[in-house]
Design goal:
- Two copies of one chain form a homodimer.
- In chain A, α7 (about 130-135) packs antiparallel against α8.
- Chain A has two domains: about 25-70, Homeodomain-like (Arc Repressor Mutant, subunit A), CATH 1.10.10.60; about 70-215, Tetracycline Repressor, domain 2.
- Chain A has ten helices and no strands.
- The longest helix of chain A is centred in the middle third of the chain and has 28 residues, at about 70-100.
- Chain A has helices spanning about 10-15, 25-45, 50-55, 60-70, 70-100, 110-125, 130-135, 145-165, 170-190, 200-215.
- By secondary structure, chain A is mainly α.
- At the A-B interface, α6, α7, α8, α9 and α10 of A face α6, α7, α8, α9 and α10 of B.
- Chain A binds a DNA duplex through α2 and α4.
Amino acid sequence: MGTKTKKEPEAAAATATGPGAATQLTPGARRILDAASTLFYERGITAVGVDLIAKEAGTTKKTLYDRFGGKDALITAYLHERDLRWRAWLTSWVDTHAAGGGQSGAGEPLLATFDALAEWMRQHNPRGCGFVNAAAELPDPAHPARRVITEQKRWLRGYLYELSVAAGAHDPDELADGLALLHEGAVVLRGLSVVDDPVGAARALAAQTLERALTPPCAAGPPVADTPPHGR
Amino acid sequence: MGTKTKKEPEAAAATATGPGAATQLTPGARRILDAASTLFYERGITAVGVDLIAKEAGTTKKTLYDRFGGKDALITAYLHERDLRWRAWLTSWVDTHAAGGGQSGAGEPLLATFDALAEWMRQHNPRGCGFVNAAAELPDPAHPARRVITEQKRWLRGYLYELSVAAGAHDPDELADGLALLHEGAVVLRGLSVVDDPVGAARALAAQTLERALTPPCAAGPPVADTPPHGR
DNA sequence: GGCCAGGTAAACCGATCGGTCTACCTGGCC
DNA sequence: GGCCAGGTAGACCGATCGGTTTACCTGGCC
């Protein structure tokens, strides 16, 4: 094989590396990724074939394989970009909606994350969390997209932890875990018509939790044993 | 198309109707359903083909189609049986572990549901909730298995509601919603290595919530506005 | 003009998909 | 013995899967 310029699909850079790498894409690649994002989320990853993606994007499989290298890389790119969008959405929402004078105190940014989630889901989330769905369809732990999925969840927990510390929680780890639980639960229960307003319920429960987590531990906390019967 | 005895795959009864219908199955059908359950859960529904299921069960596709009628019905039967197992597990656990003198009061049965969940997942749940995963792979709302999925979630919420009423919660609806949220969140976050002990965290948060939900509303509740900024 | 990245069009590959079919064997029941 | 449900074995169907290949067109840049 000569030293020609072929080989190594360039968009592979968008799959695993730099944050802004997903921005500059060939027009064809852009349409492919957009089409793939919609189809993967709405119909499922394994249920959507590359032929359909290419057709829907108005291109051919050739372009798809030239730009992305394969379906797995395209899946990874889809999740990566979705992750970037969600992070940007959440942080900018929190920055704008909780920066001013929140009347409910230091926990305002943490509560705002639930409002951001509600609006995000209202706009583009009728089928639950794209990452949880993807994880369901990609059992292989070695699949490159798995890293993107776990990173997304880990980032949210980390973000909630930062906000918890900033809010002055006396156990930011516990608070972040609890709020992460509520986030995931709300996303899952939405779409499955079992709870009327899952995000609202999660926010209400979060407000209760916050109230307790932000008051000094000596204030009103009864000395209940918080260790479950079977320990650990 | 005479009036012969062919037609109408019998196991279709196990897909949509009666609760105990899944019990009496042909030996071959039993092996097929067992194999399908394992494969569907561990590798994903769309990723597993009927050929593999038949081979793994030591039968042929002929038997599979004779007994179940098609892949969709087999999927439905898989979810239905898993649902039955989970309900039996949860209720029997709560009955045996919370019937006696729970020292933490009337909320004991509700807390016990989290212990039941923890043990259930420890035994057979490395890949998250089979129903959530299935929902991710079956976008079509008309798919027969969707009914089983939503029924499973609805049942859990209903069960939590009953226990909440029995515990004397002054807002059993709100409590059931909150606990359902924690259940789902715990199941999702397990397997995605982001929180050390999701079920434990959920249980701890549930204990806090219970404490508040079971005390009279006039006790210590500050009159904070529980309406989010943007209402609803 | 030459070069080349980017793209379109379409044939092609082996494998697998869900599903059907014929043929034959077995054991129990009437 | 006849009948039949249940099962095994395996060929077969059209469609689609992920992926590769050849050929040709286009516009910009040197």
